[in-house]
Amino acid sequence: MKTKKKYLLLLSIVFSFIMLLSLSACNSSSNNDELRELAKVEIKEFEGKDLSSILEFRENSINGPQKVDIDTYRLKVDGLVNEPTDYTYDEVLTNTKYKKLVRLNCIEGWSVDILWEGILLREVFDKVEVKDTANTVIFYAADGYSTSLPLDIILEKDMMLAYKMNGVTLPPERGYPFQLIAEDKFGYKWIKWITRIELSDDEDYLGYWEKRGYDNEANLN
Ligand SMILES: Nc1nc2c(c(=O)[nH]1)N[C@H]1C(S)=C(S)[C@@H](COP(=O)(O)O)O[C@H]1N2
Ligand SMILES: [Mo]
After folding, report:
1. Rounded to an integer, what distance in angstroms lies between the CA atom of residue 5 and that of residue 16?
2. 156 CA from centroid of ligand 1 (Å)
């Protein structure tokens, strides 16, 4: 009798494990289906240069892909600014739009060449009137991730917030609604699912990976 109970218990554990596995497999395959549909319409080439596909990224975000509800979404821009503002998605998109081919290099050794479409952070900063004491920009994301960059580097490199890649709206896996295009910096500065941009004077701020030992400058090479 005892062994029979144990056997049943074991059986039910194994069964629920298999159910769980197939559930998560279902999930990722439907996500893949959506990505594959997008991949059919993405741009493959820009000014004679081949682009990578949105299928070529490795998904290794700290808490997996985030689903952001665009109706309640706000991009908060605050800190050392005269006009702290919460922007809706559409309000962010009223800024001047730019396109640029930029390579994303992950520190784990893979890279992708993508045609990004986005708006300039400079324009957002002008609107909220950044104070003279600000020297650091801290970005926060829907998954609890954060990272930072010096304000002057963002301005000097004309860094963008991207809302499209290869001509299609960023899919959830790639950071919808906004990803930072941290040109010349390693992938861990390319924060996805941005919810808040804080102007700060804390030059020593360390983001998620930076706190865990990644170099805060994150320069390529
Ligand atoms: N919010 C958030 N942004 C993030 C990450 C993350 O875990 N969370 N990972 C970073 C890292 S390490 C890399 S290499 C790039 C890769 O983008 P991908 O996950 O879209 O391939 O996203 C960056 N942005
Ligand atoms: Mo990365």
Report:
1. 17
2. 23
Instruction: Tell me which H or E stretch contains 100.
Output: strand 97-105
Q: What is the pLDDT of residues 80-119, one digit of tens each?
A: 999 999 999 999 999 999 999 999 999 999 999 999 999 9
Q: How far apart are CA 71 and CA 88, in angstroms?
A: 8
Let me know if 98 is exposed, middle or buried by CB neighbors in 10 A (0-12, 13-18, 19+): middle
* C-alpha span between 108 and 43 (Å, rounded): 26
Q: Let me know: does 201 contact 80? Beta carbons within 8 Å.
A: yes
Cα Rg of the chain (Å, integer): 21
Mean pLDDT, the chain, integer: 93
Query: Does ligand 1 have an atom closer than 6 angstroms to the CB of 103?
Result: no
Residue 26 confidence (pLDDT) above 50: no
Architecture category of domain 2-212 in CATH: Alpha-Beta Complex (3.90)
Ligand 2 center to 135 CA (angstroms): 25
